[in-house]
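Structure in, sequence out. Go:
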């Protein structure tokens, strides 16, 4: 939708969102927040998944220390951005000279 839309995990048992077979079911999402209860994870994040999620080809992720985020398809850019007074580390993937970015809440352990 319009504005800055966030998918928030709110389950105390821990959830996994696996992008391995992502076919573009999510659209117009700018952020995923897995900082709630439980050991949540984002698995198999890929260039294609982030590219398809929103027209900015970027995804902000907030999480807790017990959560895990698979960033193996991305390269750390050794830089940060700040959005709404929250600092994020920047990860990037490139395909055919087009970039997509992951912005991951800083000061948390990345799985």
């Amino acid at each position: 939708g319009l504005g800055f839309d966030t998918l928030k995990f709110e389950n105390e048992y821990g959830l996994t969102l696996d992008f391995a077979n992502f076919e573009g079911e999510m659209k117009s999402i700018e952020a995923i927040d897995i900082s709630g209860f439980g050991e949540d994870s984002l698995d198999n994040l890929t260039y294609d998944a982030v590219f398809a999620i929103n027209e900015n080809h970027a995804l902000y992720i907030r999480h807790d220390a017990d959560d895990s985020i698979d960033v193996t398809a991305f390269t750390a850019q050794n830089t940060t951005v700040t959005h709404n007074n929250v600092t994020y580390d920047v990860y990037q993937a490139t395909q055919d000279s087009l970039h997509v970015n992951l912005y991951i809440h800083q000061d948390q352990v990345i799985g």
